[in-house]
Amino acid sequence: MRLHVGCAMWTLKSWQGRFLPHPLPVGERLRAYATWCNAVEGNTTFYATPARSTVESWARQTGPDFRLVVKLPRTITHEGRLTGVEEELRSFLEAIEPLGPRAHALWVQLPGSFAPTDLGTLAGFLRGLPRSYRYAVEVRHRAFFEDERSGRFLERVLAGVGAEWVPFDTVTLFQSPPTSDAERDAWTKKPRVPRRSVALTDRPIVRYLGRDATERTIEGWRQWIDTVTEWLREGRSPTVFIHTPDNADAPMLARRFHDDVRARLPEVEPLPEPMPAEPLTLF
């Protein structure tokens, strides 16, 4: 029984010398991160399709059981809005091919303006994708969460191709006013939508955003501990990504989430031992 946990990135300046060894070549940072977490969000691909050689490096640094949830480029989802993007999609799929089984799901994050009236476009786009990958869709328009009919329609579209609905749980962030610059920035950028915790497939994906204060982040994820534990008991294989506004403690928090689930289900496979952040010495 395995639970996958991870962060929004695999390297951050504040992690160097604390969670990750420093100095560390760019081509070794994912390998070091993979000793902390067994999954990561592939957010960088949203901004540009990576070179195939870069993706080959990601594959070399991780084992086949490591999970990357790889975001489709914004040229496909936000600029093209899933229409007339065949060439961009072909280039992207060619680039990520070296990931093999590490590409846990291709992540279709849609803009907040993508409404229930656009679901026909989404359905056509998903039907045209190769079946060699799993797909996960994140929507941000409030109607999908507040209008029951719109939510059911989206679920039918996703079920038709075996795709998952990715919730981005920001409830904890917006429970009370921000107390740091990072939280204030997150308040202006993150979607304010109701929490959703229904799995459509056997591999649900959750994005959880807490606060910069560790205790508030942990308090806010209690419902997810219950939900993820139940999913595992049902035989599902979830992936949970832990965010905070500054992400300074994200690797530690991801492992804490994993520990909290293992406290309920000891049969969950443990995470690897983290690589030492400081070089080993003889004395």
UniProtKB/TrEMBL annotation:
Gene3D superfamilies: Protein of unknown function UPF0759. It holds the Pfam family DUF72. It comes from the Bacteria. SUPFAM superfamilies: TM1631-like. This is DUF72 domain-containing protein.
